[in-house]
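Priority: medium. Attachment 1 of 2:
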């Protein structure tokens, strides 16, 4: 007599399907709390743009006109000069924030990672999902910022819209290595040091608000080796319509290597921590 029981075939998820589910989890959580992120991710950068780019920019342009006969920096107004820097710095801040406390929370407070690990998700899917969400946050924030910056008249070229994918890469270049570090921590004491010793100095000395040629030689070399400087250069090239200039490919490659290397390290540290 033929067997009446059959074994259902095991369905293997399509490549990327599980990572997409992990990304959807973070997007769903954000959909319930996105209003609380508006101030830090959207309003504050625009306040910087108005206060520094327009308010302080008027004084800078006036001073340059009095001293050098031309109220510009490299042929552009201070508003046009500082806008790409504020955009790149905002992406750094979004990425570092998302890759510190939310990672700690998912690991030790609400155990979101452990819940995901109890599902069919693999550790690689968990990493891709969270880093992908950082990219989504950067995508929305940079798009909105550039639209408003265009209304301020701060963009000089249609190439400025290429700044959106660059902003995503900048965010991942920071988010991936920071997440790789954050998942190894048992408490959040190191996160304040990341802000004080990492984010704030980069924000001030990576060419966001003034050319790094004004820095001493040693600090200039250090600034040129930072991912934020690479992002500022690329965002400024997009804003001014000079993205095809020689050297920009090297800046882009630097950021891609940072993001890719950070992802590889994150997979290793996540596996060591979640695989216990």
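Attachment 2 of 2:
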């Amino acid at each position: 007599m033929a067997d009446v029981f059959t074994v259902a075939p095991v369905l293997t998820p399509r490549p990327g399907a599980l990572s997409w589910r992990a990304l959807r989890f973070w997007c769903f959580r954000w959909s319930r709390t996105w209003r609380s992120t508006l101030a830090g991710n959207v309003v504050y950068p625009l306040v910087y743009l108005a206060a520094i780019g327009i308010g302080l920019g008027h004084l800078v342009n006036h001073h340059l006109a009095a001293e050098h006969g031309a109220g510009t920096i490299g042929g552009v107004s201070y508003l046009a000069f500082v806008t790409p820097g504020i955009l790149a710095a905002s992406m750094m801040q979004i990425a570092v924030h998302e890759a510190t406390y939310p990672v700690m929370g998912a690991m030790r407070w609400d155990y979101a990672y452990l819940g995901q690990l109890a599902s069919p998700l693999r550790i690689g899917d968990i990493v891709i999902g969270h880093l992908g969400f950082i990219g989504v946050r950067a995508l929305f924030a940079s798009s909105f910022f550039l639209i408003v910056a265009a209304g301020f008249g701060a963009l000089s070229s249609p190439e400025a819209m290429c700044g959106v994918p660059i902003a995503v890469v900048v965010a991942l270049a920071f988010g991936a290595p920071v997440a790789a570090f954050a998942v190894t921590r048992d408490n959040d004491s190191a996160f304040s040091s990341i802000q004080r010793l990492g984010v704030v100095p980069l924000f001030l000395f990576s060419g966001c608000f003034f050319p790094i040629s004004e820095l001493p030689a040693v600090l200039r070399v250090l600034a040129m080796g930072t991912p934020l400087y690479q992002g500022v250069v690329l965002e400024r090239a997009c804003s001014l319509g000079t993205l095809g200039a020689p050297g920009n490919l090297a800046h882009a490659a630097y950021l891609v290597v940072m993001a890719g290397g950070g992802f590889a390290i994150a997979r290793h540290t996540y596996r060591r921590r979640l695989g216990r």
